[in-house]
Amino acid sequence: MGRDGIIVTIPSFFKCPISLDVMKSPVSLCTGISYDRSSIQTWLDDGNNTCPATMQVLESKEFVPNRTLHRLINVWLDSLPSSSAVSPRQVRILIKNMENGISGYLDQLPKILSFAKYSDENRKFLASFDGFVQKMVSLLSSISGEGVKVEVLEQIIKVLNLIMSEYRVKEEVCRFVRENRPKFFPLVVMILQKGSLDSKLESVRFLEAIANDAETKSAIAGQQGLMLEILSLVNTETDSKALDACLSCLIALSDTRPIKIDLVRMGIIQVLGKRVINSENSIIEKALKLLEMLSTTTAGRTTICDDPICLSQIVHRMLKISNSATDHAILILWRLCYVFCDQKAQDSVTKNNGMTKILLLLQSDCSPIARRMCRDLIKVFRVASRSCLPNYDTKTTHIMPY
C-alpha cells in the first residue's frame, strides 16, 4: 500500500483472507475467521459451505459484523499520512511514462502494481483504462533474452493477474498468449526457476486462468521445462497456498489423455502419494482429484497399483477429509478393483483394511454414486475372499457388531 510514495505494510489481520485487501466491512463466520462482507457473501452465494481459510464445514452460513476489528482498521487508516494513495490521474501519467522505453516501465511498474493491490476500485480503473491491458501484454512480448530481469516479469504477471481475475480482460490476455507462445512461456519458466515464491504462485495462477481451451493447454504442457517446474513445486514446497495453486493448475490442464500420460511419466503419482500423507485437507482433496483424473489412463492405473504408498494412502484417506475427497478416493478404487479387476489393487485394499472403510462408507450419508460403487466393491471382495462375507446384504443399513 502506498501513500505519498511511501510503501505502508498492511497488518495481516486487517486483510480479507479472500481478496487480500484491507477489509472495509469486516464480518465473522461461526469459525471465528473474519472476512470482508462482499467477499464472503460472494463465496457463500457460489454455493460453498466451508470457511475459506480453514475449509471447515460451516454449521451456519450466518455472519456478524466484527465492529472491534472495524474500529481498529479505521484507527490504523487514520494514523497513515493524510494524503491519499496514488490517484487515477497520477496513474494515467505513470502509464504514459511507460512509453519511454525500458527505463520507463522499470520506474513505473512498481507504482502501478502498488496501485492495483490497493483496492477493487483501482483494479477496475486499470482494467477499463483504454489500452492499458494491451500495453502490459506488449511489454511481455517485447521482453526476451538473457538480460531480462526476473523482477520486471514478476511485476507484469502480478498486475495482469490482479485485473484479469476480477474484470474480464482474460480474452485479450489469452489472445496475446496464443499469438506469442514461443516468447511468453519461456518467460514463465524463468519466473518459476528464479523468481520469489510469491511470483511463482502468481505465475501458476496465471497459467490456470489462461488454460481455458485445448490449444492453450497443449501449448503449456508442451513447453520444455514448464510442467516439470510446477511438479517440482508440488514435490518440494511447504507453503499451502503455493501447493493449492499448483494442484489447481495441474487439474485445469489434465483433461486430455496426452497431458495425463506426460504427467505420469514425470513421476507425479509418486509425488501425490507422498502429499496425501501429511497435508492440509484441501491439499489432500485436490491431490485425490488429480489422482482420480490420472486413473482414467492405463499408465496412471498401472503406476498407482505399482506404488504401495500411493495406493495405501488412497485407502487411508477415503474417510474424514471431505465428501469430494471420499468420492475421488472411492472412484479410484472402484476403477482399479471393480472395472479393471487389478489384483495388486485388490490386495492393497485388503491389506490396508479397506473393506471396513468401504462398509462404513456404505452406512454413511455418501452420494448415490459412491454408494453404488461401494456395493460393486463389496461384490468384488466377497468373490475374492471366497464368500468370507456370505451373510452380508448390500442393502443393509448398519454393520452388525458380531
Q: Any overview of this molecule?
A:
- This protein is mainly alpha-helical.
- 65% of the residues lie in helices and 3% in strands.
- It has a three-stranded antiparallel beta sheet with strand order 4-3-5.
- Helix 7 (150-164) crosses helix 10 (197-210), helix 15 runs antiparallel to helix 16 and helix 19 (323-339) runs parallel beside helix 22 (368-384).
- The chain is globular.
Order of helices and strands: EEEEHEHHHHHHHHHHHHHHHHHHHHH
Total count of strands: 5
Instruction: Please state the structural category.
Output: mainly alpha
Q: Could you tell me the mean pLDDT?
A: 85
Largest sheet: 3 strands, antiparallel
Uncertain stretches of 5 or more adjacent residues: 2-7, 387-394, 396-402
Tell the overall outline: globular
The total of helices stands at 22
Strand content: under 5%
The termini sit apart by: 65 Å
CA radius of gyration is: 25 Å
Quickly describe the structure:
The chain has 402 residues and is mainly α. It has helices spanning 37-45, 67-79, 88-97, 101-118, 120-128, 132-142, 150-164, 170-179, 181-194, 197-210, 214-222, 226-236, 240-253, 257-266, 268-275, 281-294, 298-306, 308-316, 323-339, 343-351, 354-363, 368-384, and strands at 2-3, 6-7, 26-28, 34-36, 64-65.
Task: Please tag this protein with its features.
two-stranded antiparallel ribbon, 65% helix, 3-stranded antiparallel sheet, disordered N terminus, globular, mainly alpha, 402 residues
